[in-house]
Amino acid sequence: MGGFVEDITERKEADLRKAESARLASIGELSAGVAHEINNPLTSIVLYSQMLLDEDLPDSVHKDLQVISSQAYRAAKIVRNLLQFARKSAPDIRPHSIEQLVRRSLEMKSHEFNVNSITVVEKIPAGLPLIEVDKHLILQVLLNVLTNAEQACVSAHGKGNITVTASTDGDLIDIMIQNDGPGISPDQLAKIFQPFYTTQEPGVGTGLGLSVSHGIVSQHGGNIWAESDLGAGATFHIELPLTDGANSTTPGSVSLPPLVIHPISTTSHVLVVDDEPDLRAVLVRQFELSRYNVDHAGDGEEAWRKLQIMDYDCVLLDIRMPGMSGQELYERIADSNPEMVDQSYSSPGTP
Questions:
Q1: Is 215 in contact with 84 (CB distance < 8 Å)?
Q2: What is the CATH class of 9-85?
Q3: Where are the alpha helices (DSSP H) in the chain?
Q4: Which whole-number Å values give the CA distances from 224 to 52, 80, 166, 190, in the listed order?
Q5: Which of 236, 234, 233 lies closest to 222 in space, CA to CA?
Q6: How confident is residue 177, by pLDDT bands cut at 50, 70 and 90?
Q7: How far is CA 26 from CA 23, 33, 75, 90, 197, in A?
Q8: Residue-wise pLDDT tens digits, 287-344
């Protein structure tokens, strides 16, 4: 009786990576929601502490406020990393050379590599096709993975070797960063892209570098994964598509300019829209201290009613609100008064 044997190892590995990517995507959605909820009270802490630091207070109180402010900014950095992990805004996609991006990332790490006795071998073939990516985001991914490789080498030997290669595979480009560190156990390998998971000693890292990298690569329509045998180093693969598919954005997303409060010589009328009463109050006070005439609304519907009877020079919108969201309100304003949109500002509550 005849038969055949099929090696399904690659298919099983691909299925596992697909399942892991889907699971991380769901974690990303949860992270974005949690980060937003934390961000609002955190913004209030930052702004109130900054206002108090400007007051004439006893030195002991001033020092305590500085600690509160610095720790709030530290927490804000973690929140920003969580939002980066679940990033939804459109990246700045342009054609770039992978060879140049890799070499730029190695230049940026050269000092740390030299201090830690890390030898780097770069094997990027000439003539690789250009790839459409956000240069700064992909540099962040490369730096995160290189830093992870550096830490692995130093923890294992006090020095080490890192090899960076790249190749094309169909419509993908695969950047491989290999280190001769201690390797990663199968149990750890299944968790390394989870937020806050780290194999490093306490205080060495936040456990967000690889999870942020996963979010960035996923946003570009690619994949990042690792293979390793315990005791034999590890290889990280960063797969990115060669097509222009990375140009896709979240349906309905609107890229809005950041909040900038500039003191002015003449009074302007500002509308602050936020469903968080404490955050709304401190934003109003900040604008008033900068000599603005400020009105406020607790939701999109109230803001829309006020916009029908008053002309504002600037509208500050919280994006996520119950009922009419900030984005919906923005789109209504854009439809009814396009000239106003050109000078509107938006803040998602990031300190």
A1: yes
A2: mainly alpha
A3: 9-53, 59-85, 98-115, 135-157, 186-189, 209-219, 277-289, 300-309, 326-336, 338-341
A4: 45, 21, 14, 13
A5: 236
A6: very high
A7: 5, 11, 23, 19, 16
A8: 887 788 889 998 889 989 998 888 888 888 887 788 888 888 888 888 887 777 644 3
Tell me the per-residue pLDDT of 205-243, one tens digit each, with 9 for 90 and over.
555 678 778 888 888 888 988 888 787 889 999 999 886
**Which tokens hold the place of 17?**
């990576």
Instruction: Tell me which DSSP letter residue 232 carries.
Output: S
Q: Report how far apart the first and last C-alpha atoms of the chain are (Å, whole number).
A: 71
User: Under a CB-based contact definition with an 8 Å cutoff, are residues 79 and 38 in contact?
Assistant: yes
CATH superfamily for domain 269-346: Response regulator (3.40.50.2300)
Put simply, whether the predicted model's pTM sits higher than 0.90 gets the answer no
Residue ranges per domain, the chain? 9-85, 94-247, 269-346
Helix (H, G, I), strand (E, B) or coil at 166: strand
User: What length does the chain have?
Assistant: 351
Residue 321: both structure tokens together: 């609100």
Alpha carbon distance 86, 26 (integer Å):
9
Distance from C-alpha of 274 to C-alpha of 299, rounded to nearest angstrom = 6
What CATH class has 94-247?
alpha beta
Cβ–Cβ under 8 Å, residues 293 and 9 = no
Distance CA 209, CA 39 (A): 20
